[in-house]
Amino acid sequence: MSLALGRWSLLSTVLLAAIVVPFFLYEEPITCWTQEFIERQDSRWVVGGALGGLLATDLLLPIPSSLVSIAAGYVLGFWKGSAVIWIGMTAACLIGYLLG
């Protein structure tokens, strides 16, 4: 029983490190790139698709959907942002259903 607990602890630690360490190492470049990407006015479809895609993959990745939803509303406006949020979260539900 103790060996299995040790293996699960090791797996959990490695998985957590794989998720958290890149945020600490690359936080500033990722933040700058994200800000530039969101502020570009010529690619609203790309921004909408990226935000919807982030919401759709929220099921499998540690993505803060509330922050992505706020960004969608801020960048795209209320109605377009709401549509992107609805499509992204519905896609996440369908993906979860298919995986289940």
Short description:
This protein has helices spanning 2-39, 44-56, 65-76, 78-99.
What proportion of the residues form beta strands (DSSP E)? under 5%
Helix content: over 70%
Counting DSSP E segments of at least 2 residues, the number of strands comes to: 0
Structural class call reads mainly alpha
* Rough outline: flat
Q: Please write the string of helix (H) and strand (E) elements.
A: HHHH
Terminal Cα separation, in Å?
28 Å
- Global mean pLDDT: 86
Name the features:
85% helix; 100 residues; mainly alpha
Notes on the protein architecture:
The protein has 100 residues and is an all-alpha fold. The protein has 4 helices and no strands. Helix 2 packs antiparallel against helix 3 and helix 2 packs parallel to helix 4. It is flat, with a radius of gyration of 17 Å. The two termini are 28 Å apart. The model has no long low-confidence stretch (mean pLDDT 86).
